Amino acid sequence: MRPQAAGLVVTLAVCLAFAAYGVVGWLDRAAPTPPTGRRVVAHSRQSSRRQEPSRQLAMAPAQVQRFTVTSAAVGGFADTVYVVLPPGYAGHPFERYPVLYLLHGSPGLPLNLLMADRIPEVETALIAAGQMKPLILVLPTGGRTRESAEQWANGASPVNQWETLVATDVVNAVDARYRTISAPGGRGIGGVSEGGYGALNIGLHHPGEFRLIESWSGYMIAEEVRAIFRDNWRVADYNSPMLSVRRVAAQLRSDHTFIWFYCGSRDSLFSQNRAFNAELSDLHIMHYFLAGVPLGHSLALWRHELPAALIAASEHLGQA
After folding, report:
1. What are the DSSP calls for 2-50, one per residue?
2. How many CA atoms lie within 13 A of 174 on its CB side?
3. What is the pLDDT of residues 254-274, one digit of tens each?
4. Which distant-in-sequence residues (6+ apart) come within 8 Å of 175 by Cβ?
5. CB 309 within 8 A of CB 214
6. At what angle do helices 299-316 and 119-128 cross, to 10 degrees?
């Protein structure tokens, strides 16, 4: 079944009405500023860090739109996809833009990223300060409910193919609907927690499709979710980036794929991230690893590093 897209413009003001999902409470909590961590860079120039802007340009805010993609990969489920169009998109009808696909964690929805992490506002501020180039940000939904934990993976069931939904159906729908740079050099994928795992997993399974992969407090070994992998260790291993990266290392090097990731040192997933950093170094894959921030699996860390993540995407995406 070909994806069917039905468009609906959603302003940021309308997004704020979704308090029923428990997101507004996140916004009300003040997030402490994390300490600066140790940064590990291998086989690449270091990504630019946040700097105090010399001047701020006035501009309209990013625009948020919403549409649905109906896909046979997930049994005909109509997946809701949010799209953040950068400032200036409407006023430059002949310009094409890089795209960063962002996957939420679990439990959660795209609105968690849009609102709690303030993604549209952060992108607008960074562009106004001249710290990043405009990007289209795409946030699909990774489950049938907020509590779903589908791992963004192709499960054992033929109607639970969430990786295919993202890498094929959502990408095709976005390229058809918006002025994207529809080539690997203009396409990246990232995510937080389970979404960070999903971004790594999808990116490594489709090495010619995404030039940039980002993981924010993600993991590298598939969780033992029987409903998804059905106790099949071969399927679980295939869906474990720590185990699959070596199989595609040569293509990642050839394509100049860049992997950008971080994890708080108090996070139970830190050891996986540290081991993954060592594996990437051993394989001479270009990557950037932020290590040593003394925080756990926390919104404070994700908010603090969001500008750096968007700047890194801006730096590594854009070529056809």
Report:
1. ---EEEEE--HHHHTT-GGGT-HHHHHSPPPPPPP-EEEEESSPPPPPP
2. 33
3. 999 999 999 999 999 999 999
4. 182
5. yes
6. 50
Sign of the CA dihedral with 243 first, then 229, 206, and 111 last: negative
The Cβ of residue 208 has, within 10 Å, a number of other Cβ atoms equal to 12
> Measured between alpha carbons, how far is 251 from 226 in angstroms, rounded to an integer?
31
d(CA 63, CA 83): 8
The CATH classification of domain 5-49+58-316, taken from the options 3.40.50.970, 3.40.50.1820, 3.40.50.300, 3.10.590.10: 3.40.50.1820
Residue 297: φ, ψ to 5°: -80, 85
What integer pLDDT is reported at residue 121 of this predicted model? 93
The arrangement of strands across the sheet holding 287-291 comes to 5-9, 63-71, 77-85, 136-139, 99-103, 187-192, 212-216, 258-262, 287-291, 38-42
In the chain, where the domains are located: 5-49+58-316
Q: Which of 66-75, 79-88, 286-295 is the least confident region? A: 286-295
What is the model's pTM? Answer: 0.85
Strands 187-192 and 212-216: parallel
